[in-house]
TrEMBL record, chains A, B:
Highest taxon in the source lineage: Bacteria
Gene source species: Paucihalobacter ruber
Protein known as: LacI family transcriptional regulator
InterPro entries for the chain: HTH_LacI (IPR000843), Lambda_DNA-bd_dom_sf (IPR010982), Peripla_BP/Lac1_sug-bd_dom (IPR001761), Peripla_BP_I (IPR028082)
Domain HTH lacI-type intervals: 2-56
Lineage, opening ranks: Bacteria, Pseudomonadati, Bacteroidota, Flavobacteriia, Flavobacteriales
Keywords of the record: DNA-binding, Transcription, Transcription regulation
Molecular functions per Gene Ontology: DNA-binding transcription factor activity; transcription cis-regulatory region binding
DNA sequence: TTGTACGCGTTATCAG
DNA sequence: CTGATAACGCGTACAA
């Protein structure tokens, strides 16, 4: 990479003259400016960003820590974050915690050493389950702005962007109740997450409020998802309403029910979570609660850049981005 | 952030003493080391990475430029890249070009100004279609190592990681021919991409080699994917073999065929592209050519880190990661 | 109009 | 054993 010093040596002027000339300082004569700029163009001089960042004490970079990127919800959020950041001349350094507290912690430690101007974090499963917050608190203690989304941690005093998990499942369940459904089951793959608990609670409250009974099945992990669901449906053949609270289980339930000869949505009404592409995948046979991933990413980043701009660190509102609902008629 | 200077002032020693003490230099006395380390621990001193990077002329950061993150294939690749990079103490700065040449170019310009030690790039659709290569060449001209994957550009002399697009579609098609299928159609959503062309060619060559005729339908964009496919199937009711070369069309074709009362795979054999979750989504009714996204990410990053290590810039092999095949019986 | 000097935070070399 | 000095590359107040 060409440096100011190199240009200066070649032109037999001082480094600062070159710097000023390139920044169009009025102190420098037109003739000198021309010479400097021409050589800079020839050698394709570009100022070193590390030096600028060190000097200005601003990196124009955001640290993003998310639990996974395979889940399309997080992919869409990342897309929103990157988009908003880019349009404000910010770069993003992304770390995927893989649901590991340890990796999350290491990433924060690393990036907090001057590499980023602010953090966007969705906590790992492990972090949420074991209520570990010291590493998140350390971000704020280091005077670095932080915004969390979706996987938030109540004890941390920062701006947050969440969805209306409880309400959207409550409403979707109520919708099924109004349609006259009687035998409800909830399939959950994420029972241990904050969002999973909220969604499950919404389901249970809606049915309790209506005086109906229900099953809650915790599928625990992704392996043999279809087998477990098939078994349930076989042994509970009167099931006529299924609510799934993750992005996969609803689709699998649809497939399993159909394989048992059920007609969907006539015999069984299914509600699942999903993202932009999901309705296409299921041919509109199941209702989809759509998380607005991109909008969440936008809002989260907007809040963070505001904080950076005003040099605020902690505090801030909790913004709710309502889920969309793609019903089946 | 605490700095060396602050520690030095408090302890009444010089900055260099503090630095050496923290780095366990044998030049420093045990007693001094203890005092320095204790204060550093108390104030949670962490060396500023920007300064280290500037000094060492190495950022330990990789610039990743991909066309999209919504497509699960790229999400899986990114996952692989991040994983491999992290286990080698590298960060990644991710830019999503959104298939835009302009954004790709801007990102390269920005990151090439000292922010990264190397680039991983999958070219934008626009870049591939209009054969723009100057910005990619400029990476190499700046003496920065580059590895491309999937969306590669032939004219650029760098290491590449690709899949066996042609062969895998050729083989899958041949498989259908051997099963006695007669009326073939290929649905394509990505006709203008290098990978799309290869896949389409594999389909066409397999059928030509077998002396069969076929249709190739370019669906152009994602909107009304189902409507277009439904129309085709209605007007070509003898279709008994469908090959899809992207990750969505096969699933949509399955849904549309079933909605027309077809039994899959009995009446129509369908082959689609997909990723880890796809077989679960389609309940194994359609065969899936599985791109090994994570493996591609691993390999790409491995190649790049090798280059960085040995200070090689251009050149390098083209590695082929064979697609998996998930057949239907 | 141009050049000198300093600082950002770190590390390495060289003196003392 | 410790400290001063220079350097990475840039920008800017101040001096000439």
């Amino acid at each position: 990479m060409t440096t100011l010093k190199e240009l200066a040596t070649i032109l037999n002027v001082s480094v600062s003259t070159v710097s000023k000339a390139l920044n169009d300082s009025p102190e420098i004569g037109e003739d000198t400016k021309r010479r400097v700029k021409q050589l800079a163009a020839e050698l394709d001089y570009q100022p070193n960003r590390l030096a600028q960042q060190l000097k200005s004490n601003a990196t124009k970079t955001i640290g993003v820590i998310i639990p996974t990127i395979i889940n399309p919800f997080f992919a869409e959020v990342l897309h929103g974050i990157e988009n908003y950041a880019d349009s404000h001349q910010y770069d993003i350094i992304t770390t995927i915690s893989n649901e590991s507290f340890d990796k999350e912690q290491r990433a924060i430690k690393m990036l907090a050493r001057g590499s980023v101007d602010g953090f966007i974090v969705a906590a790992a499963r492990e972090t949420q389950m074991e209520q570990k917050i010291a590493h998140l608190q350390s971000i704020l203690n280091n005077q670095i702005p932080l915004v969390m989304f979706d996987r938030v941690v109540d004890q941390i005093n920062c701006a947050k962007v969440v969805v209306d998990d409880y309400e959207s499942v409550y409403n979707a369940t109520q919708n099924l109740i109004e349609k006259g459904r009687q035998h409800f089951v909830l399939f959950s793959n994420i029972a241990d997450l904050s969002v999973g608990k909220l969604r499950s609670q919404g389901f249970q409250d809606a049915l309790k409020d209506a005086g109906l009974t229900f099953d809650v099945v915790d599928l625990k992990a992704i392996d043999n998802l279809n087998g477990k669901i098939l078994d349930y449906l076989k042994t509970h053949s009167n099931t006529d309403a299924i609510v799934s609270i993750d992005h996969l289980t609803g689709i699998v339930a649809l497939n399993m029910a159909e394989s048992l000869g059920k007609s969907i949505p006539t015999d069984i009404d299914i509600v699942g979570f999903g993202y932009t592409e999901t309705p296409l995948l299921v041919n509109n046979k199941i209702a989809i609660i759509q998380q607005k991933g991109e909008a969440i990413g936008f809002k989260t980043t907007e809040l963070l850049l505001e904080k950076i701009k005003h040099k605020e660190v902690s505090g801030g509102d909790t913004i709710v981005i309502p889920n969309g609902f793609n019903p089946v008629y």
